[in-house]
Specification:
259 residues, mainly alpha, 11 helices
Protein backbone atom coordinates (compact mmCIF):
# COMPACT_ATOMS: atom_id res chain seq x y z
CA UNK A 1 0.00 0.00 0.00
CA UNK A 2 2.72 2.49 0.98
CA UNK A 3 4.49 1.82 -2.31
CA UNK A 4 1.59 3.43 -4.14
CA UNK A 5 2.31 6.78 -2.49
CA UNK A 6 5.63 7.06 -4.31
CA UNK A 7 3.68 8.04 -7.41
CA UNK A 8 2.38 11.15 -5.61
CA UNK A 9 4.55 14.16 -4.77
CA UNK A 10 4.57 15.42 -1.19
CA UNK A 11 2.20 18.34 -1.83
CA UNK A 12 -0.33 16.20 -3.73
CA UNK A 13 -0.21 13.61 -0.98
CA UNK A 14 -0.64 15.99 1.98
CA UNK A 15 -2.72 18.84 0.55
CA UNK A 16 -4.90 16.97 -1.96
CA UNK A 17 -5.11 13.27 -1.20
CA UNK A 18 -5.35 13.50 2.60
CA UNK A 19 -8.32 15.93 2.53
CA UNK A 20 -10.10 13.74 -0.02
CA UNK A 21 -9.54 10.58 2.04
CA UNK A 22 -10.70 12.40 5.18
CA UNK A 23 -13.80 13.67 3.38
CA UNK A 24 -14.67 10.17 2.19
CA UNK A 25 -13.74 8.44 5.47
CA UNK A 26 -17.22 6.98 6.24
CA UNK A 27 -17.53 5.54 2.74
CA UNK A 28 -14.03 4.07 2.90
CA UNK A 29 -14.78 2.61 6.33
CA UNK A 30 -17.99 1.09 4.98
CA UNK A 31 -16.12 -0.45 2.05
CA UNK A 32 -13.46 -1.85 4.35
CA UNK A 33 -15.83 -3.28 6.96
CA UNK A 34 -19.03 -4.22 5.15
CA UNK A 35 -17.71 -5.77 1.95
CA UNK A 36 -16.41 -9.33 2.03
CA UNK A 37 -13.14 -8.89 0.16
CA UNK A 38 -12.48 -12.62 0.21
CA UNK A 39 -15.26 -13.07 -2.31
CA UNK A 40 -13.86 -10.48 -4.70
CA UNK A 41 -11.36 -12.30 -6.87
CA UNK A 42 -9.12 -9.48 -8.13
CA UNK A 43 -5.51 -10.10 -9.05
CA UNK A 44 -2.86 -8.03 -7.28
CA UNK A 45 -2.08 -6.19 -10.50
CA UNK A 46 -5.70 -5.17 -11.11
CA UNK A 47 -6.24 -4.25 -7.46
CA UNK A 48 -3.07 -2.14 -7.35
CA UNK A 49 -3.94 -0.39 -10.60
CA UNK A 50 -7.49 0.32 -9.46
CA UNK A 51 -6.28 1.71 -6.15
CA UNK A 52 -3.73 3.93 -7.87
CA UNK A 53 -6.41 5.38 -10.16
CA UNK A 54 -8.64 5.93 -7.13
CA UNK A 55 -5.86 7.84 -5.33
CA UNK A 56 -5.31 10.17 -8.28
CA UNK A 57 -9.06 10.66 -8.71
CA UNK A 58 -9.52 11.54 -5.04
CA UNK A 59 -6.60 14.00 -5.10
CA UNK A 60 -7.93 15.66 -8.26
CA UNK A 61 -11.44 15.89 -6.81
CA UNK A 62 -10.19 17.60 -3.64
CA UNK A 63 -8.14 20.08 -5.69
CA UNK A 64 -11.11 21.01 -7.88
CA UNK A 65 -13.37 21.48 -4.86
CA UNK A 66 -10.78 23.67 -3.18
CA UNK A 67 -10.26 25.84 -6.25
CA UNK A 68 -14.02 26.39 -6.51
CA UNK A 69 -14.27 27.97 -3.07
CA UNK A 70 -11.04 29.97 -3.29
CA UNK A 71 -12.37 33.02 -5.22
CA UNK A 72 -15.17 33.60 -2.70
CA UNK A 73 -12.73 33.27 0.20
CA UNK A 74 -10.37 35.83 -1.36
CA UNK A 75 -13.27 38.21 -1.94
CA UNK A 76 -14.30 37.94 1.71
CA UNK A 77 -10.71 38.75 2.73
CA UNK A 78 -10.50 41.82 0.50
CA UNK A 79 -8.27 40.09 -2.02
CA UNK A 80 -5.51 37.52 -2.20
CA UNK A 81 -3.67 37.65 1.16
CA UNK A 82 -0.24 38.27 -0.42
CA UNK A 83 -1.75 41.20 -2.33
CA UNK A 84 -3.58 42.62 0.69
CA UNK A 85 -0.50 42.40 2.92
CA UNK A 86 1.65 44.14 0.33
CA UNK A 87 -0.63 47.20 0.41
CA UNK A 88 0.66 50.18 2.33
CA UNK A 89 -2.43 50.31 4.50
CA UNK A 90 -1.97 46.77 5.84
CA UNK A 91 0.04 46.59 9.10
CA UNK A 92 0.82 42.85 9.04
CA UNK A 93 4.39 43.40 7.80
CA UNK A 94 6.63 46.36 8.64
CA UNK A 95 6.30 49.08 6.00
CA UNK A 96 10.04 49.68 5.82
CA UNK A 97 10.65 46.03 5.07
CA UNK A 98 7.93 46.03 2.41
CA UNK A 99 9.60 48.99 0.68
CA UNK A 100 12.78 46.94 0.41
CA UNK A 101 10.86 43.94 -0.88
CA UNK A 102 9.09 46.05 -3.51
CA UNK A 103 12.35 47.44 -4.83
CA UNK A 104 13.92 43.99 -4.90
CA UNK A 105 11.02 42.43 -6.83
CA UNK A 106 10.78 45.44 -9.16
CA UNK A 107 14.29 44.68 -10.34
CA UNK A 108 13.35 41.05 -10.94
CA UNK A 109 10.17 41.59 -12.94
CA UNK A 110 11.42 44.71 -14.74
CA UNK A 111 8.39 46.68 -13.67
CA UNK A 112 8.61 49.66 -11.29
CA UNK A 113 6.88 49.24 -7.96
CA UNK A 114 3.89 51.51 -7.32
CA UNK A 115 4.65 54.57 -5.22
CA UNK A 116 2.50 55.59 -2.26
CA UNK A 117 0.87 58.30 -4.39
CA UNK A 118 0.16 55.89 -7.23
CA UNK A 119 -1.32 53.35 -4.86
CA UNK A 120 -3.56 55.98 -3.27
CA UNK A 121 -4.74 57.11 -6.71
CA UNK A 122 -5.28 53.64 -8.24
CA UNK A 123 -5.40 50.68 -5.87
CA UNK A 124 -6.40 48.27 -8.64
CA UNK A 125 -3.29 49.04 -10.68
CA UNK A 126 -1.12 48.64 -7.61
CA UNK A 127 -2.82 45.34 -6.78
CA UNK A 128 -1.97 44.15 -10.27
CA UNK A 129 1.69 44.78 -9.51
CA UNK A 130 1.41 43.04 -6.13
CA UNK A 131 -0.24 40.06 -7.80
CA UNK A 132 2.61 39.88 -10.31
CA UNK A 133 5.05 40.08 -7.41
CA UNK A 134 3.29 37.15 -5.73
CA UNK A 135 3.53 35.09 -8.92
CA UNK A 136 7.26 35.77 -9.12
CA UNK A 137 7.72 34.83 -5.46
CA UNK A 138 5.80 31.58 -5.80
CA UNK A 139 7.84 30.66 -8.86
CA UNK A 140 11.14 31.32 -7.09
CA UNK A 141 10.36 29.74 -3.71
CA UNK A 142 9.52 26.19 -4.75
CA UNK A 143 12.53 24.70 -2.99
CA UNK A 144 11.03 23.13 0.15
CA UNK A 145 14.46 22.69 1.73
CA UNK A 146 15.38 26.33 1.27
CA UNK A 147 11.96 27.64 2.32
CA UNK A 148 10.70 25.01 4.83
CA UNK A 149 8.36 27.33 6.75
CA UNK A 150 6.78 28.66 3.56
CA UNK A 151 6.32 25.13 2.23
CA UNK A 152 4.72 24.04 5.49
CA UNK A 153 2.28 26.96 5.38
CA UNK A 154 1.48 26.19 1.74
CA UNK A 155 0.63 22.58 2.58
CA UNK A 156 -1.47 23.69 5.55
CA UNK A 157 -3.41 26.12 3.37
CA UNK A 158 -3.87 23.59 0.58
CA UNK A 159 -5.10 20.96 3.04
CA UNK A 160 -7.61 23.27 4.72
CA UNK A 161 -8.84 24.80 1.46
CA UNK A 162 -9.37 21.46 -0.26
CA UNK A 163 -11.02 19.90 2.79
CA UNK A 164 -13.34 22.89 3.18
CA UNK A 165 -14.19 22.69 -0.53
CA UNK A 166 -15.12 19.03 0.03
CA UNK A 167 -17.19 19.78 3.15
CA UNK A 168 -20.68 19.43 1.72
CA UNK A 169 -19.88 16.41 -0.49
CA UNK A 170 -18.34 14.83 2.63
CA UNK A 171 -21.48 15.43 4.69
CA UNK A 172 -23.62 14.08 1.83
CA UNK A 173 -21.50 10.92 1.69
CA UNK A 174 -21.84 10.67 5.45
CA UNK A 175 -25.63 10.76 5.25
CA UNK A 176 -25.68 8.11 2.52
CA UNK A 177 -23.45 5.81 4.56
CA UNK A 178 -25.62 6.28 7.65
CA UNK A 179 -28.74 5.48 5.61
CA UNK A 180 -27.13 2.30 4.26
CA UNK A 181 -26.03 1.24 7.73
CA UNK A 182 -29.51 1.92 9.09
CA UNK A 183 -30.98 -0.25 6.34
CA UNK A 184 -28.52 -3.05 7.10
CA UNK A 185 -29.43 -2.98 10.80
CA UNK A 186 -33.13 -2.84 9.98
CA UNK A 187 -32.80 -5.91 7.78
CA UNK A 188 -30.96 -7.79 10.51
CA UNK A 189 -33.18 -10.29 12.28
CA UNK A 190 -32.02 -9.13 15.70
CA UNK A 191 -29.71 -6.45 17.02
CA UNK A 192 -27.08 -8.81 18.37
CA UNK A 193 -23.61 -7.32 18.83
CA UNK A 194 -22.17 -10.81 18.65
CA UNK A 195 -23.27 -10.89 15.02
CA UNK A 196 -20.27 -9.98 12.88
CA UNK A 197 -22.26 -7.88 10.36
CA UNK A 198 -24.06 -5.96 13.09
CA UNK A 199 -20.81 -5.20 14.90
CA UNK A 200 -19.11 -3.96 11.72
CA UNK A 201 -22.12 -1.84 10.84
CA UNK A 202 -22.11 -0.21 14.28
CA UNK A 203 -18.39 0.53 13.87
CA UNK A 204 -19.11 2.30 10.58
CA UNK A 205 -21.85 4.32 12.29
CA UNK A 206 -19.37 5.38 15.02
CA UNK A 207 -16.87 6.47 12.35
CA UNK A 208 -19.63 8.38 10.56
CA UNK A 209 -20.68 10.16 13.78
CA UNK A 210 -17.13 11.25 14.64
CA UNK A 211 -16.58 12.28 11.03
CA UNK A 212 -19.74 14.38 10.91
CA UNK A 213 -18.81 16.27 14.08
CA UNK A 214 -15.30 16.96 12.81
CA UNK A 215 -16.41 18.13 9.36
CA UNK A 216 -19.25 20.27 10.73
CA UNK A 217 -17.39 21.97 13.58
CA UNK A 218 -13.68 21.94 12.70
CA UNK A 219 -13.69 22.45 8.93
CA UNK A 220 -14.61 26.16 8.72
CA UNK A 221 -14.13 29.17 6.47
CA UNK A 222 -12.21 30.97 9.18
CA UNK A 223 -9.78 28.08 9.41
CA UNK A 224 -9.03 28.40 5.70
CA UNK A 225 -8.73 32.19 5.92
CA UNK A 226 -6.27 31.86 8.81
CA UNK A 227 -4.10 29.43 6.84
CA UNK A 228 -4.27 31.70 3.77
CA UNK A 229 -3.11 34.69 5.79
CA UNK A 230 -0.20 32.75 7.29
CA UNK A 231 0.89 31.56 3.87
CA UNK A 232 0.55 35.03 2.32
CA UNK A 233 2.66 36.57 5.10
CA UNK A 234 5.36 33.93 4.80
CA UNK A 235 5.41 34.33 1.01
CA UNK A 236 6.20 38.03 1.30
CA UNK A 237 8.75 37.42 4.06
CA UNK A 238 10.54 34.96 1.76
CA UNK A 239 11.92 38.08 0.07
CA UNK A 240 14.34 38.30 2.98
CA UNK A 241 15.85 34.92 2.14
CA UNK A 242 16.00 35.73 -1.56
CA UNK A 243 17.65 39.07 -0.88
CA UNK A 244 20.15 37.44 1.46
CA UNK A 245 20.99 34.91 -1.23
CA UNK A 246 21.55 37.68 -3.74
CA UNK A 247 23.85 39.54 -1.33
CA UNK A 248 25.83 36.35 -0.61
CA UNK A 249 26.24 35.71 -4.32
CA UNK A 250 27.49 39.26 -4.84
CA UNK A 251 30.13 38.79 -2.12
CA UNK A 252 31.37 35.59 -3.74
CA UNK A 253 31.72 37.27 -7.13
CA UNK A 254 35.44 37.62 -7.97
CA UNK A 255 36.78 41.20 -8.27
CA UNK A 256 37.09 42.70 -11.72
CA UNK A 257 40.49 42.43 -13.40
CA UNK A 258 41.70 45.95 -14.30
CA UNK A 259 45.08 44.85 -15.66
Amino acid sequence: MTGLFKFLDAYTLRARLFPAVLAAAPALAALALLISWERIALSNVIATGALLVLLFALADFARKQGLQVEPDLYQEMGGKPSVVMFRRGDPTIDEGAKDQYRQFIAGKINRPAPTAAQEAADQAASDSWYDQAGIWLRTNTRDAKKFPILWSELVSYGFRRNLFGSKWPALAINMIVVAICGFVLWRSSNFDMSDDLVMRTVLVLIVAAIHAVYIALVVTREGVREAARRYGRELILSCQTLMAGKAAAAKKKPPANFD
